[in-house]
Amino acid sequence: MIRTSIPVLCYHNVSDVDGHSPERFREHLDAIADAGYRTISSRELLSVVRGKMKAPRKSVVLTFDDGHISNWLAVVPELERRGMTGTFFALTDFTVPGKVRSLNNAPELHTMSECFKSAHRDGDFSQFINESEIKAMLGKGMEVFSHGCSHQGAFRTFKADWKMGDENAHWGAWTIYPGFDPKWPVFKVFSAYVYNGFWPTLNGGTDPKFTLRPTRERLEFCRRDFRKSLERIRELNGFDEQLFCWPWGQFCQDAEAELKKAGYVGAFSLERFVNSKGTNPFRLNRIGVGRPKDGQWIQNRLKMYGSDPTARVFFKFLPKRTEIRSVLYATDSVKLSGGSRQLINNVSAMSSMGIKTYALLSKDSPIIGELDDLNVEVIKFDRFSDYFHAGSFLKNLIREKSIDVVHSFHNRAYKMGVLARLMGARFKLFINRGVISRPNDLFFLWTAIANGVITNSMQCAEVLKKYRVMKSRLNVVYNAYCGPDLGPPKPRKKRGVRFVYVGNSAEIKGFDIFLQAAARFCETGNFRDMEFVGVGISEKDLSRLENHLTPTVRERLRVTGDIPHEQVLEELRFSDILIVPSRKESLPNALLEGFDFGLPAICSRVGGIPEVVRDGLNGYLCDNEDAGCIADKMRILADDPAARFNMGCVGRTVVRTLMTQEAKGRNLMRVYMGETLREELPVEDTAKGMQPEEQPYGQCQH
Predict the structure, then answer these.
(1) Is-contact 536 580, C-beta < 8 A?
(2) Residues linked to residue 501 through DSSP beta bridges, in sequence order
(3) Angle between helices 641-658 and 589-596 (to 10 degrees)
(4) Which residues of the chain register pLDDT less than 70?
(5) In 3-state terms, what secondary structure has residue 273?
(6) Which domains does the chain have, with CATH numbers?
(7) C-alpha span between 439 and 145 (Å, rounded)
(8) Rounded to an integer, what distance in angstroms lies between the CA atom of residue 143 and that of residue 128?
(9) CB 318 within 8 A of CB 270
């Protein structure tokens, strides 16, 4: 004989406002009866799985989550009319004293989203069943168990689907944020019992910062919430044994362990499988019933899940999705390059978000000293070029430290990561690419084995796509400003203008174009109070560029040589206009640093620069090697201090809004979690509402 399995159907609210309409719900009940099925209680189901009761053939359990008042007003009467029973799961924090209500005196029904928002925002529980209604339901042969205290959510991802002010913003945000702001982002919401989640703090500001909740805090929350809800529901239903229903149907082993410790004897999820003798009572399976499903759909599901063999065929398991809790950054670089600074920035962003962070570095790397004040564990390693040994070392390190993600910079590090994966190590591998030059011919093969490539501009991603890197592997995470915040820039009260170049003398950086533009600028008018600064350029470099260096420019040119990064920032701080004349560039850090100090930028229209600089908005763009155009824009800004100040304010707003350490950290996490990210920076949208000040001009907003 074919062994019986007991289907369990999951509903929520039943009303004409939201959920299943009463008409559709009646159709479902009639379809169940017409199929020859009868309802049994959840306690009877518990006896079946324990082997204390034989599974009745053609039996079904009807469950209703959230405890909406429509369960009392609409569901119970229809069940009573047909001699059926149901199991209702109430939110115990929302269950308050009150009189039994009827259709005549019940409040106007709202959508479940509004019900939850009102409950968490205003403490208004009128849309949920109250104590008296629960007692009345029990008196009519229904069951009422716990759905937890308050349906607490957690943000697991950083994909912003809405803002709080949006009409369709997920109500779970109201369980997470400490207040309300229409501009706060709303990410996907998951169960706070199961996911550590990222939690917002305001720290006196208006923009929330997010930190991963430690596992121990989540389990402490589970412990408190489960015990509180069990004590409360036992007061209400009087049952010796208590069943539980996981919010969102989500569960995990460590939360389940806390549920057992609290005293529950079983739990329902939204997985689909067999419900019969031997089924784990903490893994009771249910079938979610969507709003548009008709009676025929119900009858089909009863057939599919009404016997052991077919229920096994049509299984649906919902394992807990992976959370990123630890990240390792790896590079063999022994230079403090732009890429190295972004690695440092990534470490800072991850550790400040509560992610356990590691850095795998050469023992002589200057990066080590830059990490002294950060919450990171540095691991020194000097055999990056011994690829087999390096891969084996990383494989063992992944296992020892339980590392979830390896983010590699420079070729030896990513090859090390690829080999570790080929050796069987289980982790996500990402390859960083911050240059726009052609990769080596085998680069695409390495990326095919990795989880993805992280570039710092759309143009860099486009270059890699031309060289056979799969589009699905390409992600764009823009650089973040790495320097100190010295406050909003103020208008400079001086006659002269200082033009600054930051880089080196390599041809692709275009210092020769800077000198040509400076010479043409001096030919176009007053240059007496003008100054040109070459940061990173030495006197030796100038000797190779004599053909581009006029006496007028030489008299007003100061070069700094190779100086520490702190001094580079000081040079930018006391300059007025940044010139970026590169022939090839992805996204230079100096551009963001200049923006943060309120400098407008005059740049070549190459690489990823136009993705940050909008012509006439926060700077000017000129064609590659067009020194004449650069000179013309230099003159425009030199003659108009208000224009360059306002452009600089837009640039600072872009950096302080779109290119912060927090924004980069969230975008990295989106990629680490499996999202393919290629979103252009909304520079124009960010600048909207910034009105140029009338003379005398004021201060930047950020």
Answers:
(1) no
(2) 534
(3) 120
(4) 204-205, 493-495, 689-699, 701-702
(5) coil
(6) 8-151+217-313 (3.20.20.370), 153-215 (no CATH), 326-476 (3.40.50.2000), 497-687 (3.40.50.2000)
(7) 60
(8) 16
(9) yes
What is the rounded CA–CA span in Å between residue 637 and residue 640? 5
163: left (phi over 0), alpha (psi -120 to 50) or beta: beta
Q: Show the beta-strand stretches assigned E in 423-492.
A: 428-433, 452-455, 474-476
DSSP secondary structure code for residue 692 in this structure: P
**In terms of DSSP H, where are the helices of 403-491?**
411-422, 443-449, 458-466
Q: State the DSSP H helix or E strand holding residue 229, giving kind and residue range, or none if neither.
A: helix 215-237
Backbone angles phi, psi at 429, to 5 degrees: -120, 130
Tokens (6 digits) for 506 = 């390599």
The kind and range of the H/E element at 47 are helix 42-49
Task: Give me the numbers of helices (H) and strands (E) for the chain, helices first please.
Answer: 26, 27
Residue type, 453: V
Q: Which two tokens stand for residue 451?
A: 């989880």
* Residues 496, 533: Cα–Cα separation, whole Å: 13
- pLDDT tens for 19-30 read 999 999 999 999
pLDDT score of 694: 39
Give residue 600's identity as a one-letter amino acid code.
P
- Bridge partner residues of 185 (DSSP): 163
Task: Give the tens place of pLDDT for each residue, 398-427.
Answer: 999 999 999 999 889 999 999 999 999 999
| pTM score of the predicted model | 0.90
Buried b (16+ CB within 10 A) or exposed e, 621-639: bbeebbbebbbbbbbebbe
Q: How far is CA 514 from CA 415, 525, 570, 596, 606, in A?
A: 38, 18, 20, 22, 15
| C-alpha distance across the termini of the chain, in Å | 74
Q: Please give the structure tokens belonging to residue 629.
A: 């155009």
What's the pLDDT score for residue 70?
98
* Digit-coded pLDDT (tens) for 575-618: 999 999 999 999 999 999 999 999 999 999 999 999 999 999 99
Q: What is the pLDDT of residue 695?
A: 36
The residue behind tokens 């006029």 is 550
Kindly report, residue by residue over 519-530, the tens digit of the pLDDT.
Answer: 999 998 777 789
Is residue 678 within 8 Å of 474, Cβ to Cβ?
yes
Single out the residue of 696, 600, 579, 572 nearest to residue 642, CA to CA.
696
